[in-house]
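Exercise 7.
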Amino acid sequence: DPLHAARLGLADEVKASLLQLTAKYQAHPSGLAHFVKQEFYIEQIGVVAAALDEAIVQDYDGALRIAPAWPHEWNADATIHVQRKSKVDMQVREGEITTVVVEAGFSGLMRVRNPWPGGIVEITDASNNRIIPSHLQGSIITFSVDRGRSYAVQKTNAKLSTLRFEPVD
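Solution. The predicted structure, written as tokens, is:
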């Protein structure tokens, strides 16, 4: 199912499964599905919502994963609530992660799986647009956060380093 595919990082399976299940079961404009005669199938909406959330952001073991199973052909603007009262605002365009902002709901260390494997990541305090003096690389990046502040996570290169935090609307 698409939820398991998302957790396993299988973007193509997420896409195929969501499209197949929606085509097969969704019978009403409201999004409600039909599973058997005369019975509304409300689980379909829940499976779609949960699979989309898991495909775009995961936080099940203390390390945020950004777009771990998001289909490359799909664009997204999302705000996802994660553990420790935090949120992730993000945008994906044509398979590329263009914006990642972590809104910290706690003070301490934030762990994020590098959204750009092999790339160097720059952290900007989006609350005041100041670059935190560190360049991080590796599969898991860790940085300090303060509750109530926002942090832009960006790949360090000429194209992206000029981007600054823009709220997702």
